[in-house]
Amino acid sequence: MKNRSSSRITHHASSLIFLPPFFCLMLFPPSFCVAAAAVTFQSSETQTSLLELYTSEGCSSCPPAEKWLTGLKTSPALWKDFVPVAFHVDYWDYLGWRDPWSSKTFTERQYTYAGVWRSDSVYTPGFVLNGKEWRAWSRSQSVPLSTKKPGILKATSVNLKTWDVIFIPTTSMDPAYEVHTAVLASGLSSDVKAGENRGRRLEHDFVVTLLSSVLLKRDGNGVQGRFELGPENPAGVTALAVWVTRPGTQEPLQATGGWLASVP
Predict the structure, then answer these.
(1) Residues whose CB is less than 8 angstroms from the CB of residue 137 and which lie 6 or more positions away in sequence, other chains included
(2) What is the CA radius of gyration of the chain?
(3) Residue 212 in contact with residue 16, Cβ under 8 Å?
(4) Which of 61, 148, 150, 216 is close enough to 225 for a disulfide, judged by CB 3.0 to 4.6 Å?
């Protein structure tokens, strides 16, 4: 396990998402459906867990964690009971190999969690399950099921560019919520030429390539909003993850997502 100590970062940044306007679509139940030219990702009332992995190609301890994450691609619970995302941090780039998918934004996100947990350090590989540190991944075959019932989250698009989001809480509703969207790439590989993993060919899945957030506002018995995806196509894009939080927090209340193309 790799640790990295530093001053706590509390600023949260996000980047504009880009996604191609057209994909060759395939049907993947149960969260992904195509009907009347619309693509819909929808949760049930029971919480779909958001599983975050903080990783780096500069960390020799990370490949086993990434292999474990890749194994989730064949799980029948994928997208229904959990949504996996992999954030590549940049604080090991100084070792001589710059992770091509690393981002300072993702490092700041991990430090924000550390601040909530009252820790001055972060480490890789590090799993976060529904906003809480999760160290039992290596002893688990899948992701623990949540019994919470926060409400239904739904994201719909007719062109894979403009997405309408609605969240209907099951209990008392806050005035506003924030929806976060992550473009995910899978089937990525890298021949590492320096650093701790020098000479290794690393494989990656569920890699967050771009991240964005939009405020949802109250409308009737729920909150809703819209986000736009641009025309550019980051290499390897295959899926979209969507989750909702209270404004100014990172702990997810509900999540959904699914494949946008065939499983790599």
Answers:
(1) 65, 68, 127
(2) 18
(3) yes
(4) 216
